Amino acid sequence: MKRGLLIIDRGSKEDEVKTELSTICSKVMERGNYAFADYCFLEVVPPFIKDGIQKCLKADIDSLTIVPYFLYPGKKVKMAVNEAIKFQAGTSVKMTFTKPMSMHPAMTEIVESKIQLALKKGGIDLPDSKIDVLIIGHGSKDPNARISIQYVADSLRARYKSVDYCFLEIEEPTIPQGIEKCDKNKPEALAIVFYFLHEGAHVKRDIYGDLSPALEKSQIKKYVITEHIGTDEKMIDFIITRAREVEDAD
């Protein structure tokens, strides 16, 4: 059986996002032994879901695994799945849908690897028990978003001095509130995690609009900022893991 894979991302106008997704698809296709792998976007810019599905169906495949590439289960994931499933009736190619990229030990491992890499690059040689961690997520009206980021924070707490989280927009705690709370802990070193899949506008610009002045006002002298989590090689394995969960159930 020839199986294809389609990643559905939210969408971004930043060129880096398409570059990252192209790289991810190439590695997933090779490592997961897929006959075809590509990506599309739910919104913002093409290729949209219709474009992605049609391209997949033109390939020589018997089945298609569709991956909602989102950090949080919720409204966006439902929109992506509902849009894609409309095309099942018009083809003999069987479509299966994975869970999003959340609520799984693999995500904790990815965040952990980002923290350790940032600490190493920053020349911080302290025991993990003396490192404070602040995870910055996007923020959402959907309660599942908070549950997902809290899952990662809870999973890391046994290793680090403290682990908290805050949000760029929509919900609290805000980034200034998150930094203020960390400041009260008087950290020897703070690892700031960018809990975003891509190097989009939020990672390149928006976060710093709140983060930089908040750090300047604080007494925190030693800190590192991680890469966004979508760049990790472990993410390739996680995508394949999510895919195998539904493929093995066929």
TrEMBL record:
<dbReference type="GO" id="GO:0046872">
    <property type="term" value="F:metal ion binding"/>
</dbReference>
<keyword id="KW-0456">Lyase</keyword>
<dbReference type="InterPro" id="IPR002762">
    <property type="entry name" value="CbiX-like"/>
</dbReference>
<protein>
    <submittedName>
        <fullName>Sirohydrochlorin cobaltochelatase</fullName>
        <ecNumber>4.99.1.3</ecNumber>
    </submittedName>
</protein>
<dbReference type="Pfam" id="PF01903">
    <property type="entry name" value="CbiX"/>
</dbReference>
<keyword id="KW-0479">Metal-binding</keyword>
<dbReference type="GO" id="GO:0016852">
    <property type="term" value="F:sirohydrochlorin cobaltochelatase activity"/>
</dbReference>
<dbReference type="InterPro" id="IPR050963">
    <property type="entry name" value="Sirohydro_Cobaltochel/CbiX"/>
</dbReference>
